[in-house]
Automatic annotation (TrEMBL):
Belongs to the bacterial ribosomal protein bL33 family. It comes from Pseudomonas knackmussii (strain DSM 6978 / CCUG 54928 / LMG 23759 / B13). GO terms for cellular component: cytosolic large ribosomal subunit. This is Large ribosomal subunit protein bL33. GO terms for biological process: translation. InterPro entries: Ribosomal_bL33 (IPR001705), Ribosomal_bL33_CS (IPR018264), Ribosomal_bL33_sf (IPR038584), Ribosomal_zn-bd (IPR011332).
């Protein structure tokens, strides 16, 4: 059972790596020394969960209603009749 994880820099730069790990064989949290390009040094990266955010719009969309009649120019016609 593989799980996506995020390795976050301990230097506080906000830089991170993403990887996966086998949750069954490695139940403990991972700490790896990797290169942080922001501070240009090798620092310790600690495991954190990946948070999946689904962006929801604040305004709810109104349902589209089918109009039976529409007016174009000065003529009115029924759109349901072919």
């Amino acid at each position: 059972m593989r799980e996506l994880i995020r390795l976050v820099s301990s230097a506080g730069t906000g830089h991170f790596y993403t990887t996966d790990k086998n949750k069954r064989t490695k139940p403990e949290k991972i700490e790896i020394k990797k290169f942080d390009p922001v501070v240009r040094k090798h620092v310790i990266y600690k495991e954190a969960k990946i948070i999946f955010c689904l962006k929801k719009s604040r305004r709810q969309k109104k349902p589209r209603h089918r109009r039976a009649f529409s007016v174009r120019g000065s003529q009115a016609f029924c759109s349901n009749i072919t």
